[in-house]
Design brief:
- This protein is an all-alpha fold.
- It contains 18 helices and no strands.
- It has helices at about 5-10, 25-45, 50-60, 65-80, 90-120, 125-130, 140-145, 155-170, 180-190, 195-200, 215-220, 225-240, 250-265, 280-295, 305-310, 310-330, 340-370, 390-395.
- Helix 12 (about 225-240) runs parallel beside helix 14.
Length: about 400
């Protein structure tokens, strides 16, 4: 890849939205959301056939961790690409709030109804408050962190990312181009070191998977630690924006990611969450962005995949409440034949997809259009200009 700047590569007019040149990242978001969906299905829908259950565990047991790690890296990458010339922290925070919170509130209320009315599960009021405010991932108790809509714990991390971003970007922008790879490698190494630091924690309640509740919280759930993954994505974006050469093209990055995914179980249990996958996923994101900037056609950048990517956030938020309600109505606690289980999974996938489309079209898009930008244009810029547009920011 040449060393020309992104502004030169994009060409006139400079105001064109960068997202029109990065469709692969949009399409890849749905693949990641789909991995989280499949991960939760094998937890809630065990196959009656031991062979089918073993195969599904082998293929998808790490899918949820991989998908979430991908989203955290992608958030840092996309937001760094989307920095606006005259942006302010309040404007940025406003956009992120109206992008994330309406979907969270709708799916939280749906999960609350499913738990209390449909499944008859008792809930604690304080746990609900923490979940509504997206503070649950700071809590040490696992049932608080993953209560109500399980996947919302990751939004608790994103809240910290969004709060810190206007301050972090000023520091990241000070790094000279020739030093970008050094800081990118250093940020990746910080993520790789997290399992080692987790071993220094006090002994907690052991899980049958080889780690304790404290270790799980520290390695995967606590927002301050996951901020390192977000920063890694920021540095990768600066590498691409500066036109620095990547070690792998898209095909090689895909192969590395697939290979790393299947060798992850060979490492210690704490490494299955983020450590092994962080570098392959980061290179995959950077290579996908570079391929798009070079105008290379990709499957992820196809029109159907971009459409799925657009609704992927809503899909991510809706799928677990749909799975819980579906499991309850169709036979809670039952094991099904392989054919029946697959049919149920396909049905609930379709329901999740339909709800996601409706939420995106009738909630997410109208709210972003109406409220994401204030009519008042005041404030002092807190970030430096990079050619980018609104759509890539909304896709983060």
């Amino acid at each position: 890849m040449s060393q020309e700047t992104v502004a030169t590569r994009l060409g006139p007019p400079p105001a064109r939205n960068l997202i029109t040149r990065l469709p692969s990242l949009t399409g890849a978001r749905f693949i990641a959301a789909g991995m989280v969906f499949v991960f939760h299905t094998i937890v809630l829908y065990p196959f009656a056939s031991p062979g089918a259950q073993t195969t599904s565990d082998t293929l998808f047991a790490n899918g949820g961790y991989t998908g979430v790690t991908f989203f955290f890296i992608l958030s840092g990458f996309v937001l760094t690409c989307a920095v606006r010339p005259r942006d302010t922290a309040p404007k940025f925070w406003r956009r992120r709030f109206f992008k994330v919170y309406p979907n969270h509130l709708i799916t939280f209320l749906a999960a609350l109804v499913i738990l209390t009315v449909i499944t008859g599960t008792a809930v604690r009021g304080w746990d609900g408050v923490l979940n509504v405010l997206l503070l649950q991932s700071w809590h040490l108790a696992l049932d608080v962190r993953v209560g109500f809509n399980v996947v919302a714990w990751s939004l608790s991390c994103e809240v910290l990312f969004y709060f810190a971003f206007p301050f972090l970007i000023k520091l990241v922008n000070k790094v000279r181009p020739e030093r970008l790879w050094f800081w990118t490698i250093l940020s990746a190494a910080s993520v790789l070191s997290i399992p080692s630091f987790a071993k220094l924690l006090p002994a907690g309640t052991p899980f049958p998977y080889g780690f304790s509740d404290w270790e799980l919280w520290f390695v995967f759930h606590v927002p301050a630690v996951q901020l390192l993954t977000f920063v890694f994505g920021m540095f990768l974006a600066k590498v691409v924006l500066a036109g620095r050469r990547l070690p792998l093209k898209l095909g090689g990055a895909v192969a590395l990611t697939v290979g790393a995914y299947f060798v992850t179980p060979l490492f210690g249990p704490l490494y299955q969450f983020s450590a092994i996958m962080v570098v392959p996923l980061g290179l995959l994101i950077a290579a996908g962005a570079t391929a798009d900037l070079d105008r290379l056609p990709t499957f992820l950048g196809s029109r159907p995949m971009v459409w799925l990517g657009d609704i992927s956030f809503a899909f991510y938020m809706w799928h677990y409440p749909v799975l819980v309600a579906g499991h309850h109505w169709l036979g809670a606690g039952e094991n099904w034949s392989t054919a029946t289980a697959v049919a149920v999974i396909i049905l609930l996938f379709a329901v999740s997809l339909l709800l996601s489309w409706a939420t995106f079209k009738f909630v997410e898009q109208p709210i972003m259009k109406r409220f994401a930008a204030s009519r008042r244009r005041r404030g002092t810029a807190v970030v430096t200009p990079i050619p980018a547009g609104d759509q890539i920011d909304r896709a983060a």
